[in-house]
Structure formats: structure tokens, C-alpha cells
């Protein structure tokens, strides 16, 4: 289907531009606004209200006022709201996909994939909401009873990044609704439009006023700062970079807030000589190129056994060079632009540094000329193990390949990072899969799989990749606290 300028304009006009506070879309208290751009053209897509500290606190007032009643709302009712929102998003899947493509740049096919993936968190947590078990037991001494029940943590601040505008929001909002928490959501200023449409859809699905408040704005810290300093807030859930996560953890300490931190990654992609190399290349393309490499799970270091490194690199480079960069709204495009010029400069600086250190660009290696922030899909061969590009999150369509000779060496290289989010392992040997998984210091392992995200699985990392899990049965626990009642025998 061709996306016409009229279709884009009509969709953009349907997106609320205000702050969502206590069920109403409002202007900012100082009348301030900010623009949202299309990274494929640099043009302005929409102008939104920019929240002040005062607005952020008004959002917390609304969340706090709604918390008591929301906690008492039957789980079945909360579950039904999530399920209705899931159905509405499915009906509007094309709108959500196009909106993400416009503000974030990813090709439409990928944006559609994100709608399916992101929406699953609403369905999953609509099912989890009614299976929130407690326990009742006799004390070990045989006298008296213990009753344990889950309760919502209380008002939460949810801060999301720009790279997966729908999924990063549903992964937090879904379990918060299921657990009975109220929320202040602060989307990334580069891609706030999807959250605006998502919030409007939740209201339509019956979410009561004040349960979800959305405050986008130019200055992240002037929104999060006063909210986190307010004792009515009980939790912060953040997805974004490790440096910002560290700062928020320090701020959270003052109020002893519960925290969930989904931070950066530096995923190793291990290819052993017994792997099916064609499947490994297919997995590498998915693990590297999903979202143009702008993913925390993106394969960042390709560690390939020396005996197959040449063949793997050649096949991988062929696949990368057959991609078609272009605006995501064009069906032929298989790679979108990077989010902004700074992101593209950062990627190129890492490539230039690696090449200066002796790496060879087998394909790509340069920004692409023309409008938007496009970077050529790149494979770098012969990357020295101490190159900066192997330490930093690349966040772009660049694949550095390096080699190992033994399993022990592969594990040591994979673990040589302060990050521990996603990892990938390609081998036909199941015993090796278990051995490596046991020793690898990563929260997630893709075994012969280049994509590992699923609403039913606990997503998250170890080391500096964060704290807590999103999805699975673990996801709802992040928004629950336990209360124990000690009952004296009659
Ligand atoms: P970022 O840390 O710059 O921003 C994330 C969010 O934090 C945005 O909403 C931003 O406005 C806000 N923010 C920035 N500075 C802040 C401050 N001082 N106080 C309060 N809020 C602040 O990250 P990004 O560039 O939007 O996203 C990319 C990063 O996110 C990468 O490091 C990526 O690995 C990570 N990420 C992690 C996961 C995960 O699940 N682990 C998922 C997606 C992205």
C-alpha cells in the first residue's frame, strides 16, 4: 500500500498534542511546546506541549489521587481494560506502525512487527492480572498462620527510550495496570507520538482518569527530578542508557524508591565451526539489523571461530550489501535512517577508529549522502580485540567481526564487557549450548536465534545492563509488593 502525504497528515492530525493529566489533554502550564521530526527527511511532524516541573507534579497529583480506588478495582476489570486496549491496537495496527515509522524511521514492515510484539504485553498482562497469587501457611512451629498477598507498589514513574516507541511503553504500562499501579509516563522527546496515541487508546478502552498520565517535554530532568523527589512516588522504571540509569538510581536512593532499570547492552554473537553458517548469517542479520541496529539487544560483537570466520564474514557482507536503505514508508526500504545526525556521527566515529586500528570495511563504512541520517550497512573484518567499537554500544548498522579459536576463549571474550543483556550463540551442539549458557554472564541467550524478545519471557540484564525483568511472570512482580499478615491461632 502506498503511503500518501494525505494519509500521513490525517494520521498525525489524529494524535493528541497535549499533556495527559487526570484524563484530560492539557497545554503546558507555561504554554511551551516542542517539535517532533521525521528522521528520514528532517521535517517537523508535530508540535507537542512540553511539560514543566509543575505539570509533572500535577501528573503525580492525579496518579496519587487515583491510586487508592485503582488498587481496589477488581483484577478482572483491570484485565478487561488491557484486553480491550489489545483489541483496539490490533484494529489500528496500521496507524501505530505508520506513526512509529514516521517519528522513528524504522521500515514499515519492522514497525508492524513492533506493533505485534509490543501489543502482546497487553494481552500477556491481561492474563497475568487475574493470576496474581498469594499464599497461606502454618508457621514451622505449628502454631499460628501466615497470610501473604501482593499489593500494588503505588504510583510509578515510567521513562522510555526512543528506539521502540510502542513496545517500551507497553512493557511497563501493561504490568503496572495488571498490578494496580497508577503511572506518570515520560516518553522520549524524539518519539513521543506513539505514546500519545497509545494513551488515547487506553482511555478509550476504559482506563479511569488519573491512572495513566503522560508528560512529554524538552527537559527530561525537569520532569523526572521533582517527581522522584516527591515521597508520593513509589517506583521508577527506566529503559535507556546506562549513564542516565546510574543517575536515576542515585536520585531514587533519596526516597528509597523501587527501581527497574533496563539499560545498555553489548551483545556478543558467537558462531562456532559446527554451526549452520547460512542460519548463522540469517540470525546475524536479524540480531544486527532489527531497528537499524538501534536496539539494546543488537549484536555488537561478532565472535566467530577462526576456521569459519572468512566464509561467515563473506556471506554476512553479501547479505548486508543487498539491503535497501530508504524512508521507512516506502515498501522497498529494508533499512531506515538513524535517529538523528548526532547518532550517525557517533557510529561513524566508532567505524573510523576501528579502521584506523587495522579493521577492514568489507562492505559499507560510510554515511550515505542525501536527506535523512542514513548509514551504509557495514561489516568490519579483522577488528582488533581492544578496539573501542567492541566496548561501546554501536547503536547503528555496523557489524564488527573478530575471531576466537577455542570455546573457553569465546566465553572469555563474550564476558569481557561491563554489560550483560542479550547474547547469541550459534552451534549445532546442544551440549555446548548448555555449557556456554551456564558460563556466559548475560541475562538472555539466543540459541540459534537472532531475535529473542517475547512477552512471555523475562527480558533484562545483569551487570551494568540493569536491574529487574520485563515480561513473563517476573514482569508483574516488579510492580507488586508483598504484605504478610501474621494470624494468631484462636
Ligand atoms: P537515554 O538514556 O538518553 O534516554 C532514555 C529516556 O531517559 C528518555 O525518555 C530520555 O528523555 C530520558 N532521560 C535522559 N536524560 C535524563 C535525565 N537526566 N533524567 C531523567 N530522564 C532522562 O537513552 P536513549 O538514547 O533514549 O535510548 C537508547 C539507550 O536505551 C541505549 O543505551 C539502549 O541500549 C537502551 N535501551 C535499553 C533497553 C533495555 O530493555 N535494556 C531497551 C531499549 C533501549
From TrEMBL:
GO terms for molecular function: succinate-semialdehyde dehydrogenase (NAD+) activity. GO terms for biological process: gamma-aminobutyric acid catabolic process. InterPro entries: Ald_DH/histidinol_DH, Ald_DH_C, Ald_DH_CS_GLU, Ald_DH_N, Aldehyde_DH_dom, Aldehyde_DH_Superfamily. Residues 25-484 form the Aldehyde dehydrogenase domain. The active site is at residue 262. This is Succinate-semialdehyde dehydrogenase/glutarate-semialdehyde dehydrogenase. Belongs to the aldehyde dehydrogenase family. It comes from the Bacteria. Keywords: Oxidoreductase.
Amino acid at each position: 500500500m502506498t503511503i500518501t502525504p494525505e494519509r500521513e497528515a490525517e494520521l498525525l492530525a489524529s494524535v493528541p498534542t497535549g499533556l495527559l493529566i487526570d484524563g484530560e489533554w492539557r497545554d503546558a502550564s507555561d504554554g511551551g511546546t516542542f517539535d517532533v521530526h521525521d528522521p528520514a527527511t528532517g521535517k517537523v511532524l508535530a508540535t507537542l506541549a512540553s511539560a514543566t516541573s509543575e505539570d509533572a507534579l500535577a501528573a503525580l497529583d492525579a496518579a496519587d489521587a487515583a491510586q487508592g480506588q485503582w488498587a481496589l478495582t477488581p483484577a478482572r476489570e483491570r484485565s478487561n481494560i488491557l484486553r480491550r486496549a489489545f483489541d483496539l491496537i490490533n484494529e489500528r495496527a496500521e496507524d501505530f506502525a505508520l506513526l512509529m515509522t514516521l517519528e522513528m524511521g524504522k521500515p514499515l514492515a519492522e514497525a508492524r512487527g513492533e506493533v505485534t510484539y509490543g501489543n502482546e504485553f497487553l494481552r500477556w498482562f491481561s492474563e497475568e492480572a487475574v493470576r496474581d497469587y498469594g499464599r497461606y501457611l502454618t508457621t514451622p512451629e505449628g502454631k499460628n498462620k501466615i497470610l501473604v498477598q501482593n499489593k500494588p507498589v503505588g504510583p510509578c514513574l515510567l521513562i522510555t527510550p526512543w528506539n521502540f516507541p510502542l513496545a517500551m511503553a507497553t512493557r511497563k504500562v501493561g504490568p503496572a495496570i495488571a498490578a494496580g499501579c497508577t503511572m506518570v509516563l515520560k516518553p522520549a522527546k524524539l518519539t513521543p507520538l506513539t505514546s500519545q496515541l497509545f494513551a488515547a487508546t487506553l482511555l478509550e478502552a476504559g482506563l479511569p482518569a488519573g491512572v495513566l498520565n503522560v508528560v512529554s517535554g524538552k527537559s527530561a530532568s525537569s520532569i523526572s527530578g521533582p517527581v522522584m523527589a516527591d515521597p508520593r512516588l513509589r517506583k521508577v522504571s527506566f529503559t535507556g542508557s546506562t549513564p542516565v540509569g546510574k543517575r536515576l538510581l542515585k536520585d531514587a536512593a533519596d526516597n528509597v524508591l523501587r527501581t527497574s532499570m533496563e539499560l545498555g547492552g553489548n551483545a556478543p554473537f558467537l558462531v562456532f565451526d559446527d554451526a549452520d553458517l547460512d542460519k548463522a548469517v540469517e540470525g546475524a542479520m536479524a540480531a544486527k539489523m532489527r531497528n537499524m541496529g538501534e536496539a539494546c539487544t543488537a549484536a555488537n560483537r561478532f565472535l566467530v571461530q577462526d576456521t569459519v570466520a572468512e566464509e561467515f564474514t563473506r556471506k554476512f557482507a553479501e547479505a548486508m550489501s543487498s539491503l535497501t536503505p530508504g524512508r521507512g514508508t516506502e515498501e522497498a526500504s529494508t533499512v531506515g535512517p538513524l535517529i538523528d545526525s548526532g547518532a550517525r556521527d557517533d557510529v561513524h566515529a566508532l567505524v573510523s577508529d576501528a579502521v584506523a586500528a587495522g579493521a577492514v570495511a568489507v562492505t559499507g563504512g560510510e554515511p550515505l549522502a542525501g536527506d535523512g541520517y542514513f548509514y551504509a550497512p557495514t561489516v568490519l573484518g579483522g577488528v582488533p580485540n581492544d578496539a573501542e567499537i567492541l566496548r561501546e554500544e554501536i547503536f547503528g548498522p555496523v557489524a564488527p567481526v573478530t575471531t576466537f579459536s577455542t570455546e573457553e576463549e569465546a566465553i572469555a571474550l563474550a564476558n569481557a564487557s561491563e554489560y550483560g543483556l542479550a547474547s547469541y550463540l550459534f552451534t549445532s551442539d546442544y551440549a555446548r549450548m548448555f555449557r556456554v549458557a551456564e558460563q556466559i554472564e548475560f541475562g538472555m541467550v539466543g540459541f540459534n536465534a537472532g531475535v529473542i524478545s517475547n512477552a512471555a519471557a523475562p527480558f533484562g540484564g545483569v551487570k551494568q545492563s540493569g536491574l529487574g525483568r520485563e515480561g513473563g511472570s517476573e514482569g508483574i512482580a516488579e510492580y507488586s509488593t508483598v504484605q504478610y499478615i501474621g494470624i494468631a491461632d484462636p
